[in-house]
């Protein structure tokens, strides 16, 4: 039954970016979702009885603190675009769905200027501090997407600490509430990043590693499923119904972080395994970040 509980919890953490009206595109499709398709996707979740959880509840389910629904979904939105408030939030409210928005503390009220690295790519607005407060008051969880949308696996220890701690503190000052969740920009993280996120006090951090979140994951390296501009309703439903195969990088990171403190269910250290030094090292060579400019792409969206 859809409403049944499971003793082997798995959560589909979906990642969106922008929601709105967009021209057809070939590149960066995971950065966009047509507003009409988003409306139909949310209606499908409601009609089929999926349980849309907030991140804190999902963490409790994965940690065994409460029973997990058999079909659990978490909705996340990276970057904090203004079109979330205009297009996505009303739909979520219609269904009573919770969601998490990851905001860039140093870019509030600005435009996403990293888009300007590619000519002719529209540059969207980001939510202001006031808009972020309004969204939070509407029941949306606000998480951090760092202070300046930087690639964390390249950062010095000082910059890494500032990006994670300063963004958390700034957002907490704006919201008057604790910020417990983090998303790594560009899927850029390494083991030092995970350690820094733990020291900064985050309860979770999400990646763009493909797969369902399970007890095999560390809460500071949670996988997600990217929703793309071209996803039709049948493909969306199929993605939720049939557990997607874990990306090879996710398998490696699960083993690499198995002995880290705070794991949902420690799997035991695999001392004979040479784990990846960063999220980039776990990717095939042709998918690694070869460009120092902050470019987004489908495999490692912002």
Please provide a brief summary of the model.
This protein is of the alpha/beta class and 302 residues long.
Average pLDDT figure: 86
Biggest beta-sheet profile: 9 strands, mixed
- Choose one word for the global shape: globular
Radius of gyration: 18 Å
Tell me the total number of β-strands: 13
Q: Level of helix content?
A: 25-40%
**Which spans of ≥5 residues are poorly predicted at pLDDT below 50?**
1-6, 267-274, 283-301
| Sequence of secondary-structure elements | EEEEHEHEEHEHEHEHEEEHH
Report how far the terminal alpha carbons are from each other: 36 Å
Helix and strand composition category: alpha/beta
Number of helices: 8
Instruction: Estimate what percentage of residues fall within beta strands.
Output: 15-25%
Task: Describe the protein in words.
α1 runs parallel beside α3 and α5 (157-175) packs parallel to α6. The protein starts with a strand and ends in a 46-residue tail after the last helix. It has helices spanning 35-47, 55-63, 82-95, 129-137, 157-175, 191-200, 233-241, 248-256, and strands at 5-6, 10-16, 18-20, 32-34, 51-52, 68-69, 72-79, 100-103, 141-144, 181-183, 204-210, 213-214, 222-226. α3 links the parallel β7 and β8 (100-103). Mean pLDDT is 86; it is low at 1-6, 267-274 and 283-301. The protein has 302 residues and is of the alpha/beta class.
């Amino acid at each position: 039954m859809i409403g049944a509980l499971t003793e082997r919890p798995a959560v589909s953490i979906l990642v969106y970016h922008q929601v709105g009206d967009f021209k057809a595109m070939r590149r960066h499709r995971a950065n966009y979702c047509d507003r009409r398709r988003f409306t139909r996707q949310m209606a499908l979740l409601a009609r089929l009885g999926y349980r849309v959880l907030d991140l804190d509840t999902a963490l409790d389910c994965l940690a065994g603190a409460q029973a997990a629904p058999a079909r659990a979904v978490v909705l996340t939105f990276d970057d904090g675009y203004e079109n979330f408030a205009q297009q996505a939030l009303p739909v979520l409210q219609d269904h009573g769905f919770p969601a998490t928005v990851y905001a860039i503390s140093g870019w509030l009220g600005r435009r996403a200027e990293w888009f300007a690295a590619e000519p002719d790519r529209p540059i969207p607005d980001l939510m202001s501090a006031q808009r972020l407060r309004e969204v939070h008051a509407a029941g949306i969880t606000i998480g951090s997407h760092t202070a300046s949308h930087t690639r964390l696996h390249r950062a010095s220890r000082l910059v890494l600490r500032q990006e994670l701690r300063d963004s958390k503190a700034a957002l907490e000052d704006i919201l008057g509430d604790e910020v417990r969740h983090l998303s790594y920009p560009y899927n850029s993280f390494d083991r030092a990043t995970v350690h820094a996120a733990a020291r900064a006090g985050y309860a979770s951090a999400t990646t763009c590693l493909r797969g369902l979140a399970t007890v095999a994951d560390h809460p500071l390296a949670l996988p997600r499923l990217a929703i793309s501009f071209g996803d039709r309703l049948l493909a969306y439903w199929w993605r939720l119904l049939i557990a997607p195969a874990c990306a090879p990088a996710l398998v490696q990171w699960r083993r690499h972080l198995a002995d880290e403190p705070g794991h949902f269910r420690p799997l035991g250290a695999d001392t004979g395994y040479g784990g990846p030094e960063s999220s980039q090292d776990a990717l095939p060579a042709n998918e690694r970040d070869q460009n120092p400019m902050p470019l987004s792409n489908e495999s490692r969206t912002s």
